Predict the 3D structure of the following.
Amino acid sequence: MIPLLFAFAIPNLFWEPGPETAPALDQAGIECPYVRPEKMAAWKNAGRCVMGGDPAKPEKMRVPGVQYRMNEASASRSPWINSNGWRFQRIGRRVVLYDLPKGKGAFGLAEAFMYNAEALVKIDPDDIKAYGDMAKFLKGLEPLGMPERVNIGFVDDGSAMAGEMMNLMARKNLLFKVVKKADPQLDLNLKPEGKNPNEFAVMARQKLTDAKRLVRLYGSETTLVRLEGNDTRSRLHLINYGNRPAEGLQVRVQGEFKNVTLHLAPSGQEPASKIAAPDLMTGEGVTEFTVPSLAVYAVVELNK
Amino acid sequence: MRRRTFLQIPAVAAAATSDEIPKYTIVSSHKPQGKAGMPGLYPGQVVSLQSKSVIDAATEKVNPKVVTEMISKGMTELTGEKQAADAWRHFFTPDDVVGIKLNCSGAPKICSHPLVVAEIVRNLMALGIKANQIYLYERFLDQVVTVKYPEYLPAGVNIGVVGNNRSGIVGYDPKTFVEVNFFGEDDTRSNLNKMVTEKFTKIINVPNMKDHGASGVTGCLKNIAYGSFHNVARSHQYSKTHTLSFIGTLASVEPLRSKTVLSIMDGMKAIWQGGPFEKQHKFAFYPGRMMFGTDPVAMDRLLLDIIDDERKRQNAPTVWSRTTGEWGPYVREPGHIEFAAKLGLGEYDKKKIKLKEFNVA
């Protein structure tokens, strides 16, 4: 196991280039990245703080993103999303590696942060500025330290089929956690059944009912969510796997929150921003608001 | 605290049609406004004008003088007035902010013709409505820009498109929507255009005469319904379409229903197959017709016969056919017009429709 330092659980950068690239790290605000053990001496001789880690050891995550394969994911127009969210439910807090191609560095960091992953994030050196901007955004968030909000329990038998069932529940923003046995505190408890993961996820939605879903999204087929907190204070993570911003995303969260603030992560030339949630409506046990444009990632703070 | 109005589709309508009608929830805080909205000031009445000279079938060139004459005649016959201006005053005042609902889904080959739209604008401005109080509106910018509307219009008239985004609700009212789950889709809301809820005081609907692969025909009802809400294409999947009940349901939502006070159907050119697009030119025909009314059901009931008659002439299956295949992937639902009648949007019974027909030279 690689020992990792977690400041506010920000995933750690794994940096392949040598110490001659230290200025790029300085510019990006990266203080102490992970490097290969055999390169540690060179970095320390250059007066830099580094940690040693072998990227071959951790479990490797999929490259997050979207594939527009019409009618293949399900009998719908929904694109196929490669998300690692459900995997973290299965493996728990174990060190993982994101080995990301050019253009995916900041996105992978956001996904790893959203799922509170102990992750090494290996990026293309050209992505260092975007990565640094995202890391700075994440560090600026107030630590919450509250439990995940879910209302479905799933008894994972470890099979590939069960994995795909969890993947499709996550894809439909049905918020679940892996349980060893049925948890009476939850609205719905499920175990793998049948041979069609999509039908399973549809059944899960029907049994739970839309009225009981903790989060509903309107206006994006490529955005996934994670919810933390309780009825008094919650944090909603939104990540858009699509190739273009989700414009005018309508969000509905269980619980009445009068104070809702959007923290929108930087993307490309767009800097990070913080705004009061537009179109805020509360009542009937729910809160609704609009996210004007979700390029990549946003954190929504909801307070009573 | 949010203020919502939950309106269910009247039970009598659902019971009278089919047990397959999905459960609709209409969320709107807007109340009905008077009697001007659909079916409007002239329920069950339609004025239909035809001219052999309004469009040249070979070149598709439209004669603007005949357009002017047809619109003047249509409006005066509908209202019983002698002067066109007096006819338009039945519907509009100088303070109105008027949305003109275009049909550009088949643009640029078939759409609300810019000369028709320009003549409507001219009549509105003659009442004292300023150019900047008039909006041509449609959902998608990429369709509208294919028609050079600004070249036909006075400066200041607005083009009010929502954008090119097919899924997000930017430009739509988050507080006014129809919620329904057709096929297990995750996004179960269709929100109403924010210009309709916040800006317009009146709407003129300017549909075309077209076959439609899912709804049978597309005229007044489908243009005002699917053209004013987002996330509507989800009503079709494989061969099944829920246009039967969705079109009328959307059209009945306030304030869309109350604000839509006049329909002028541009049937100079029409489509008998492949609609709402002109997929092949051989599917176009040229009725040289315009219809005027306030009752979308009555007008669409007449449209049904126009399209079906042409399909018979072309040896195509009737729009009532329940088969799919080479003539289209969906089972057509022309019954959406009768369904809308049961929601109180107009008169479906041809025997009760008062039709005035005229030929214009």
Remarks:
- The radius of gyration of chain B is 19 Å.
- The first strand of chain B starts at residue 6 and ends at 8.
- Residues 296-313 of chain B form the longest helix (18 residues).
